Design the sequence.
């Protein structure tokens, strides 16, 4: 989700900079941001690794994972989980709205016959895929978010299959990234069809 948010930010910057957008500089910045993002997420998630213990159950002859948090670490973990799921969504939606508003303002300057609201409606229809994609990702990752908040992994639950199915549902956005972003966008779909002719 964070990488999708970074792509959304880059897309917004390219719209605002227009012809002054430097693709090579953008690639360099992306390289460093990916490394920085990985380090930050790892450092902020390290408490989960430190507090994870394996409990050997002699009666059932099984091992259980047990996460023991103090109250402040539990609060920290909940806030971090909430931020980790909803900040990228907010960035994606905000980027989409900024792109739509900026392109509408550009069009108002060239087409004085149409009002801003009419042009905004046309741009919303044209760029609806920018708003739909983050919402689809949110819906598909929501079960994983809920599990990470409520799951108590020290004993097996009667809702095991629900947890398992919801966990695998959260991987659908990554598995179907092509469908969510390329097929949903008329421009990307057209470019994809052009590249198919070469193969």
Sequence:
């Amino acid at each position: 989700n964070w990488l999708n948010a970074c792509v959304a930010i880059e897309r917004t910057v390219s719209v605002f900079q227009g012809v002054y957008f430097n693709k090579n500089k953008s690639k360099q910045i992306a390289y460093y941001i990916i490394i920085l993002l990985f380090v930050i997420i790892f450092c902020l998630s390290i408490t989960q690794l430190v507090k994870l213990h394996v409990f050997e159950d002699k009666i059932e002859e099984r091992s259980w994972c047990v996460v023991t948090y103090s109250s402040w670490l539990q609060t920290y973990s909940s806030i971090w989980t909430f931020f980790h799921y909803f900040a990228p969504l907010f960035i994606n939606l905000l980027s989409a709205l900024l792109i739509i508003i900026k392109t509408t303002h550009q069009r108002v300057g060239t087409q004085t016959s149409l009002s801003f609201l009419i042009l905004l409606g046309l741009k919303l229809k044209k760029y609806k895929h920018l708003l739909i994609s983050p919402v689809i990702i949110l819906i598909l990752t929501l079960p994983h978010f809920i599990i990470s908040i409520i799951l108590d992994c020290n004993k097996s639950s009667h809702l095991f299959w629900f947890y398992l199915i919801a966990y695998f549902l959260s991987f659908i956005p990554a598995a179907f990234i092509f469908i969510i972003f390329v097929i949903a966008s008329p421009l990307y779909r057209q470019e994809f069809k052009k590249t198919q002719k070469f193969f």
In short: Residues 71-110 form the longest helix (40 residues).
